[in-house]
Amino acid sequence: MEITFTPIGLIHSPFFKLEEMPIQPAGAFGVQGTIDLYPDYVAGLQDLDGFSHIYVIYHLHKSNGWKPRVIPFLDKQERGVFATRAPHRPNPIGLSVLKIESINSSQISVSNVDILDGTPLLDIKPYVPQFDSAQDIRIGWIADTIQQVKNVRTDRRFSG
Amino acid sequence: MEITFTPIGLIHSPFFKLEEMPIQPAGAFGVQGTIDLYPDYVAGLQDLDGFSHIYVIYHLHKSNGWKPRVIPFLDKQERGVFATRAPHRPNPIGLSVLKIESINSSQISVSNVDILDGTPLLDIKPYVPQFDSAQDIRIGWIADTIQQVKNVRTDRRFSG
Hints:
The structure is a homodimer of 160-residue chains. Chain A is mostly beta strands and 160 residues long. Chain A is built from no helices and 9 strands.
């Protein structure tokens, strides 16, 4: 069974190639970008200006294929793909928490952008940590390398 | 341009109809469910047992159609759909932060489940708050009703 989605806009950023990108919003602090919604969807932005952050869900459109185990950017050994944020996934869906700088008609100016320029947008949701009820959080293998998230950049390993 | 995804498993929960469901994980504290991965994807679960929580991304498969403005469960007035988590969205993609209770081969036992039984799973990502770099968070119109998230249940407004 297949599920079909349609892009609702495009994400623009300073990143025009898959290498040398920040690997998460935490590594893209202050990096500016824009989300340009297609006209059919602009009315859905009402009330969003009261929120500081959004979940941005997008199509990792340059990701081709996947493997059950990958060597993620933060590590030197293979990990199960679902224990990583690697872009080569069975369904190449990206998720970033971005900061809203301003909203102007069809365009949202955002910061902390770790997304490739021209990426198709699938959904925007308000970021409400109180909804998640997550406490006593453990972050597995990433605990050993989390300090590197601000400095590590992408390389060619998922460009193929 | 259309984007096609394929379910990687199914989510099972105690919720068999769209009404009387919790509206977010914070309203589903302790509610147990399971994520059953299809065989092709089970090897991707390696290393996930070190994490306490996951992002679960799924197809809101009972959602038909959308409108740019909706009256969300937490409110009595219309809001732009992208300023809500309402299921009637241009691309009906659901996002929940669930707690991992245990992992057994192809099955993840989870809690805080606010998801309909039989929902198609699209992706699992480790929940790593340090990746998001979100500070000084404002939650817009939801600030007035956030206290209700634990008690409000769904009704028929998005069942059509």
